[in-house]
Amino acid sequence: MNDDFNTPEVFAVIFDMVRQINTKFKHGGKFNPADLGMAKSYLDWMAKLGGILALFQEKPAEFLRNLDDVLLEKMKLKRADVDAIVNERQAARVAKDFARSDELRKVLTDKGISVNDLPNGVYWEVTK
Length: 128
What we know:
two-stranded antiparallel sheet
């Protein structure tokens, strides 16, 4: 049964699609209606395929937050501590203290945290 359903081929297609979508769409980016239509089609396809394979049952944001929490725990870090450093870095950026901001970004990077400055705020995640 390991190959009766062509499971390796299905996962290869899934990962190819994920790579293509991740290349096109970045967190916090601006998208036109055609991009949004493509993203909707992709999500519908993934939901249908995921339902068949019992995958993707959690909402993506919830899944990623839970994954980050697991990784933070393994790294012996607390979300509140990372949030505090990110907030301090953001305050330094607002105050135009870019040396301090860069210093705090390095602290986060050294801890395995990626920080993205977006037009609508700061987004961080555990580096994967």
